[in-house]
Amino acid sequence: MIFWILAALSFIQAAEVTENKILVEQPPRIITVNENATLACKYAYNGTGNEFRASLNKGTDRAVEVCSVSWNGSFHNHHSNKEFSCLVAVDSHKKQVNFNLWKLNTEQTDIYFCKIEVMFPPPYIYNDKSNGTVIHVREMLHQPPEIPSATSFWALVVTLGFLGFYSVLITVAFVICWWKNKRNRILTSDYMNMTPRLPPGPKNKHYQPYAPTRIHTEYRSWEP
Fold it and tell me: Would the pTM of this model clear 0.85, i.e. be above it?
């Protein structure tokens, strides 16, 4: 009888230990090249706690708290370190806390740990030490402005030169056609005086332009 009682008590204690334990899972490494990073911390908890606190700590000794959030159902209270730009999002249904970091620099490359705490009701518990996540912040390479290549420049020059030559050629052809058309119209409408003329002089003083002499008797031959 005593054996069964001791066995029951051991089972109850083991269940309480399992129930009050928090397990945290986080990725081993994050590499960022655009100064932004999101660290997702998943946790497993089957206890009766209803007020929690999650925090992100920097360094192997967890001496620097980057940011934190406290929640109890719908109310969330955020806090962030002045040296970091951080925003925390909590998904209670998925049991996941996302730490969104931006404006990171290379000096902030380090290992980061997620910490989940049950604040109420007692007893107070928190997760075991996890392996942490190494956030590697790479230096951004500022690309110099692109300089047009010599090939592109000469291609543009040749294109513009060809267009300019073609425009001049079309203009010259139009002017020549217009000049020829105007000349033909002048020659067609010009009056040509075919009356012979002699230079002035004493011998040509009484010169009269040639005109055929009409013989009037030919027209009167019918008269009686």
Answer: no
